[in-house]
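Budget justification, computational time. The allocation requested in the original proposal was used primarily to generate structure tokens for proteins on the priority list. As evidence of use, we reproduce two of the resulting records. The first is shown immediately below.
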Amino acid sequence: MPELPEVEVVRRSLQKFIIGKKIKKIEILNKNLRYKIDKKLKKVAENQKVVSTKRKSKYLLIELSNKHTILLHLGMTGKIFILKNNKVFKTSFYYEKLFYEKHNHFIFNFNKSEILIYNDVRKFGFIKIFKTKNVKTCSHIKNLGPDPLSEQFNSEYMKRTIPKIKKNIKNFLMDQKYVSGIGNIYANEIIHLSTISPRKKVYNLSAKKISLLVKNVKKILKEAIRFGGSSIKDFRGIGGDKGNFQQKFRVYNREGCTCKKKACGGLIKKIYISNRSSFFCSICQNN
């Protein structure tokens, strides 16, 4: 599943192509996604201009000129394609080398030469539309914790939040009600850079470790966005650029390799925490 950096790369990709353009027609080819596509999507969104693209956690928000907002979640295998003059631009996570039209579920037609296609093999993604003023209180958004790149996610927030939490640090970072947008890949990388054991209980973190953790959350996510996300399965941005952050992985998927920290020399080990693979250094993350 795409995490915050990949969704942000998609958002920035869409920003370049669809801002200010009118959605002239919406074609619903298959309404049976994770949630059935509501008929009102066509009624409300057609003939409206795209005002902005935003991101909340792993959700894409496309704001329209009639004060409605399209909420889009890519699920496990959702992909967005922009076709311009019959040239395909890839924008989404898990981009496949072959474009299978049978997995196209809806199409936004902007004009004769530009269209947006949502393609999803496993159909775990979804699209909904809300009045913009109601987006923050919809069931998908209202219980999310602060965005880790926002000012609201800081050391003071952590110090207020963690004293009564019995989760380990890995599960805490991935719990969307405490921090929104971080998944398995980046949780591993953040914890390693912060030299914390993934098993460590979050309430046992010192003030110094909390500050370091907050700093590294922002550092890793920004670095991943700068490198275009992580191409685990051929992820590409709008111009066809492949995400390169996987080349920067310190621990994720590096079981048996040597730790990249200077003068460490530890080996990367793999364990399972809450049925998810967790990678950590046997030496610098032993506390």
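The second record produced under the same allocation is shown here.
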Amino acid sequence: MKKISTLLAAVAVSAAANVASAATWCMPGTYQNWVLETNIFEDNGDGSYSQTIADLHGDFKIVMYEGASSWDNQWCSNGAAVENNVAYEAQKIANGVNIMMAGDNAHYINAKVTITPGANDALTILVQAERVETGEETWQLVGDAPLAWDFTTAPKFTKGDGDEWTLAYTGTITDTFKVVKNSSWANSYSTASALNLDEVYTLTGPQDPIDNMSVAAGPWVNPVFTLNVGDTVTLKVTAEGAGVEAVEADAATGEAVYYNLQGQRVANPENGLYIRLQGGKATKVAL
């Protein structure tokens, strides 16, 4: 009896180990803010895996992991976009380019996504949507705090006349950032240059990964960003007014002056993050 109990226990442990090490396929992307541990595919029992997504849009990757979640095994773009009801052959590339959906800001409604792994790391993706809709065009500014690398909270540009879009940002910009169209990292625009106020820069894109832009001389307090999205995409950053002028005046004294992340001067900073401006150089410090 003891031998049988021991054998059953060993079988149970072995089964649990197999479950823990079973391959998990998931689909992180713009549509769910790139969360790895969600949107898990279900095993169809025939070598394929499927799930249905209510509103599939933007870009995504297919990720497989065993046990603890990991980004180590990624299937990425083959240079083309995924079309509805057309089989797509993804490529296994570490930190490769995200897979795009065909159509400008297309939303694939009630999309059944089926993946079929093959030999030599082959992976076929088939998207079958109930219908395809076109979403409203958006442009966003994403970046380091106080901005965010999150499309749900990143500020949006407002469309003006013709191809012009503007964003009057309330706060202080000190670090790196980029411009993204239609909440898709594959639609990132930037330039390797550090930007000065009142100059026009031609941005490179759409592509991802891409270098971030940075502040050449700052901080920028309440800056206004102006995009022109014609044949080329250009960006100009201007000062709203007194905010930046006051910062520049303080810098000329050579004394350390502190601002909070909203661009407000702080006389006696303590217990928090601040922008220290001294000798014309802005530095983020924790006190």
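A brief technical remark on that second record: Helices lie at 2-21, 242-252.
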